[in-house]
Amino acid sequence: MKVSVIGTGYVGLVTGACLADMGNEVMCLDVDEAKIRSLERGIIPIHEPGLDEIVKRNVEAGRLVFTLDAKKAAEFGEVQMIAVGTPPDEDGSADLQYVLAAARNIGRHMPDYRVIVDKSTVPVGTGDRVEAAVREELAKRGADIDFAVVSNPEFLKEGAAVDDCMKPDRIVLGLSDARAEAIMRELYQPFQRNHERTLVMSRRAAELTKYAANAMLATRISFMNDLSRLAEVVGVDIEDVRRGIGSDPRIGYSFLYAGTGYGGSCFPKDVQALMRTADEHGAPLRLLAAVEAVNDDQKTTLVRKAVKRFGALQGRRFAIWGLAFKPNTDDMREAPARSVIEALWAEGASVCAYDPIAADECRRIYGERADLTLAASPLEAVRGADALMIVTEWKEFRSPPFDEIRARLKHPVILDGRNLYEPEAVRRHGLEYHSVGRPAAL
Ligand code: NAD
């Protein structure tokens, strides 16, 4: 099948590469010239395990091509997948300008029947707006061409995007058009050969399902963070509670970790956008307001603990382990590390940070500053620091050389925002250990 993918970010590039790997002919369009030029030279602009090889393999096979030409892309694929960004507008609602621009481009240039698939995360009713935008462009050129607009929200996780795309838990299709359904089922058939995982529903239900999924996951995290404050006060280890409730199959273990809050390009913006949609429709989601408030607070919990431990932070220096919003990605959009670093700066402290792959992204965001050093290794980051703060749970932080850390720190203090260690084990190395939601925490 011929597929055009509009937008070559995390979702578009991964989807395009995986579809090509299944034997489809894929053309990826972007408006970012630098991105397209580097993709043409085989340079992948994002860090995603396994993506390099898939892109390379399919480019070489001629099944995956990149373009800046919107007309060519609209003409190419019978399936047109929109995977552009939907960043938050000033009021928190999803900014649909890129989605609608992509839709208008398709309407302007499509030569015959098209299935227009919205993979971007968009509020309920956006499919109708995409449909209207395409229809308007067709009317302008007096063309009478049939098309269908399908909502096909994306559930991949950054850091495991290729795997998620190749082996999806479910494929949600929001549509009411038999021809489009047949095409979409055919397109996704290779991804679900052992058992069918397609859920067909109304377009509006598919749009809401995506927000509901992210809002639910964010709620679980905020629930545990809220509970962790109580656990600290009553002398309970939140990790015991996590294991105690996670073992209940009705609850499960995923997304039950207390820590420094959720971040990334999806949860914060999707929770906000869903709240705005609910407000607009006069059905405010009260629970989500609390989820967001708990998370905002949680992002700076390590800094508050540091103030309790050290008093004024003016002139102090903190080692930070982990900058990406989660492991296995270089994405720092809304990363808790940014809240921690900025709160430390606001207190007059400086930072020496280490992250296995997000250092360049950090440099791009903050530029050269006297109060920010990027270390080449975890141990280099702690040298001479007043304390170590752990913000992202990279695997390489799980069994660190505690004695060497103690020897390098000015004060033997670890503030762990991800509860990576058994408190007693760390303390045996002569380190003061403060984590989240555990007895004797600051
Ligand atoms: P991204 O910012 O990484 O990439 C978006 C790309 O679209 C950019 O390269 C941009 O230049 C391009 N673009 C913008 N307007 C365009 C246009 N008119 N024509 C062609 N290209 C255009 O975004 P992303 O993280 O891939 O997210 C895309 C959508 O998928 C968002 O709605 C997001 O919420 C959703 N989503 C993201 C993830 C994730 O983990 N990143 C997961 C599921 C869903």
UniProtKB/TrEMBL annotation:
NAD(+) binds at residues 30, 35, 86, 121, 158, 269, 333. Substrate binds at residues 155-158, 210, 255-259, 263, 326. It catalyses: UDP-alpha-D-glucose + 2 NAD(+) + H2O = UDP-alpha-D-glucuronate + 2 NADH + 3 H(+). Pathway: Nucleotide-sugar biosynthesis; UDP-alpha-D-glucuronate biosynthesis; UDP-alpha-D-glucuronate from UDP-alpha-D-glucose: step 1/1. The keyword NAD applies. The keyword Hydrolase does not apply. Residues 319-423 form the UDP-glucose/GDP-mannose dehydrogenase C-terminal domain. This is UDP-glucose 6-dehydrogenase.
